[in-house]
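Human: Here is a favour to ask of a fellow structure person. Comparing notes only helps if you start from a blank page. I am asking you to supply a protein in sequence and structure-token form. Write it directly below this note and I will take it from there.

Assistant:
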Amino acid sequence: MHDKELTVSIVIPAHNEERLLGQCLEAISRQTVVPYEVIVINNNSTDKTVDIALNYDFVTLVNEPRKGLPYVRDTGFNYATGDIIGRIDADTIISDNWVETICNIYQDSDVSAITGSIHYYDAPLSSIIDRADLVCRKWLYFSQHRYPYLFGSNMALRRSSWQTVQHEVCQSNNIHEDLDLAIHLSKHDMSLGFITELKAGVSGRCIDVSPLDFIRYVSANLNSYKSHGALNRLSLYPVVGLVLACYLPLRLLYRSFDDKSRKISPILLLKEHRPARRNPVLSIQ
């Protein structure tokens, strides 16, 4: 163990996130250990995203005009100056001890990057979905020799680790930038950890997209590994097939669920009570 007090930068990509960014920043304001800096990367928002970010005096707003998460990742991580770079999404609600947990974990000098567990705070049957999600994420973690894995809604890495790979990471419109980062880190034999205690709530809105968009979103997982020659079809394809099979029932459940009353109402299927989210894999185009 080391006695050095570590500093944590939090990077948040944001494109038209006026509905959820406020609750994300409120959660950051409740941290038991104050982050060193909070950086919101505005990616061409046309709503009130910028105004909301500027309502918080601890936020640094950085504009990235190039569309797509790979560019936002690079800009945010290069701007960060803390020892540790925490990466979350604008719909993430981190637990009150999130920064403190990261600081404690990174006292171990062998840790390069970590990701954590997820709670779907606006989805029905969340306790069941959360447990199933945890099983899948742990399976990916224990399969790291085949599938290096980080999840951009709840992850952190050493800034020095980022600096090692910052000129190697890919910028493509058909991969996930967090998986791409994990693959590049693993090529340098850096340790990637899954920490169940590093908890964050996220929206289930990724399921509420058109079938074609969802297929492209899921396919980006395969493309991320395939582009690096790290795709084992026998083990990963069945998982992808299961996810695709669950798409329709989960989307119907999500669209019929009122997260304020915590009740399911089929009549909500006929209403647009939650704005649709632009598929992040497509937003680079």
